[in-house]
Design goal:
Elements lengths: L1 E7 L10 H4 L4 H16 L6 E4 L3 H10 L5 E2 L8 H12 L7 H16 L10 H16 L3 E7 L1 H12 L3 H10 L5 E7 L2 E9 L16
Parallel strand pairs: 1-4, 2-3, 2-4
Antiparallel strand pairs: 1-5, 5-6
Helix pairs in contact: 2-3, 5-8, 6-7, 7-8
């Protein structure tokens, strides 16, 4: 049986206004990844395969965790958030949020417009994003053993949707909950993709690390 451990990258440059500016770990993001790597080494450190997306924040997280010998697969790259934000404002008059409370209302609107085909001029359709995430998970399930996957919150949300048959509102809620450097586990049982864990942060659960429990 293949066990896939999904990790969201550490905190990136949350003050960025475009993808290129966002795609690097903050100092806290590096620390989150180092703590996670130490936790894995102290518990069950061995993985038959380590795979990341091609983004700097994903690869940097794997390296800070101590897993430098990874493969990269572009199917694990994040959805194009900044392109989505620009499209939903230009085409539907919905501005980017100013705080976390606004973001909790904003993201479901963006995902709904995207999923229903209500946004044009994007680098990727919702159906294409869905298909590439499903394809990489299907391929990894054939790898055997334990597989460490370092990716992003949108990809993890889509994996959960795939496993739990979530609708678009459920997908949005899941995506909103995925914390930086969080752990998630899925595996196949009787040809079904099963969720074994979602959004765990054992490396951040002590009081002195409460400040490091971040979403953006």
């Amino acid at each position: 049986m293949t066990e896939i451990i999904l990790v969201r990258h550490g905190q990136a440059n949350s003050h960025a206004s475009d993808e290129a500016g966002y795609d690097r770990l903050s100092a806290l993001g590096v620390q989150q990844a180092e703590w996670l790597g130490a936790h894995l080494r102290a518990t069950n450190p061995h993985f038959e395969h380590v795979v990341t997306g091609t983004l700097n924040r994903q690869k940097g997280t794997a390296e800070a965790m101590g897993y430098a010998g990874y493969e990269s697969d572009a199917r694990l790259d994040e959805l194009s958030y900044f392109a989505l934000a620009q499209a939903v404002e230009a085409q539907h008059g919905i501005p980017a949020p100013k705080d976390a409370t606004e973001f909790a209302r904003y993201l479901p609107q963006v995902i709904t417009h995207w999923a229903e085909g209500g946004l044009s001029g994007l680098p990727e359709t919702f159906d294409a994003f869905t298909a590439r995430v499903a394809s990489v998970i299907d391929d990894l399930n054939g790898a055997g053993g334990r597989v460490l996957v370092v990716t992003s919150g949108g990809v993890i949300g889509m994996v959960m949707r795939h496993a739990l048959h979530l609708g678009i509102p459920g997908l949005s809620k899941v995506m909103l909950q995925v914390m930086n450097s969080s752990l998630h586990r899925v595996h196949h049982v009787h040809e079904m993709l099963m969720v074994g864990a979602f959004n765990t942060t054992p490396h951040l659960d002590t009081p002195e690390r409460a400040h490091a429990r971040t979403f953006i």
